[in-house]
Specification:
Layout lengths: L1 H20 L2 H13 L3 H17 L3 H17 L3 H18 L3 H18 L2 H14 L3 H17 L3 H12 L5 H17 L3 H11 L6 H13 L3 H14 L7 H16 L3 H103 L1
Helix pairs in contact: 1-15, 2-3, 3-4, 4-5, 5-6, 6-7, 7-8, 8-9, 9-10, 10-11, 11-12, 12-13, 12-14, 13-14, 14-15
Length: 371
Amino acid sequence: MKYWFTSLLLFSLYSINYAIQGDPDQLYRDAYKLEGDNQLYEAAKTYLEAADLYRAQKNYEFQAKVTERVGIIYHNAFHYQNSITFYRKTLHIRQEHFPDPEKEAQALYNIGIAYQHMGSYDSAIHYLGEASNTYVKDYYKAKCYFEIARVTRRLKDLDRTVKYYMQASELDLDAAMQANVFQNLGYAYMHFGDTVKAEHYFDKAMPLVMFNETLVNKAVIHRTRGEYKKALEYLTQAASQQDTSKITELVMFNYRQLADVHFLLDNKEESLLCHQIRGDMGDRLYKRQKELDQLYNHYQGQLMVARFEAEEERKAYQENLIIYGAIFMGIVIIIGLGLLTYQKRAKRLRKARESDLKTIDQRLTKLNNGQ
């Protein structure tokens, strides 16, 4: 009886404590919404509250997951040192509680990218190298090699840049990824002024996947050599494959190159037309950006209202949980007190009955002795 009463009491206390502390899954969802609303500080704070509750529940997988989200928030806000702190915490949680090479490699990769953005290139190369050694899948290994090569290219170290791209090319990659390797090798050689090797690797990339960027880069190579007709051929081919309804930097750059090459070939009308097309794209891009800004502001307002309403509902839900928990606890206490009173009364009655039985037994014994 006492065990039953104690269990009910503990359950009531747990319910009230759960309502006060909050549900970590709900906090996780709230933080995700806040992050989507660009309320980054509040999102990070809520993620950390969820992480504390997950740790208390020994749910280390989700503790690592929400801690990683905090690192990503700081990363996107350009607070790279803070992001590294939380990426390290994520790595520590995963290594200690549930080792998983792919997820550990992802944490190492994130640390390396953060160091890369900070300009700490030696640290970036170290952690990206650790990630490439930890990853199991070749696709992710190639991503690490790409990033290391990007760092070494910034350091103007052609040998190491080529080395890491070549390591990526030796992996088991699909055609698109392999073409991307050759594309990057060509761009690296072009960056360092070796147009012959650059063209060689661009030619290797083209049969695998026809990147518009490859065509434009080949055009730039021919333009630097003064081969304007050849450059025009590649630029025209790239323009024919580009969707001008989707305005990108590459499309804008292509039409600028077309305008310049036509001008160098004394095709002034075509050059003017390309400049006009590029100008129209710029105007459309500006109008589209303005429309997107207006839509963003509109939906931001709606999201703020929805967030406020959701917060009010969450508070009301927690208050109701506390009230119902308190009521339930009161009922349990009343029942428990009633049970204790019943036990005491039953105990007294049992003792009285035992006393009466003992007295009767004594009298019977005397009577028997008297006879």
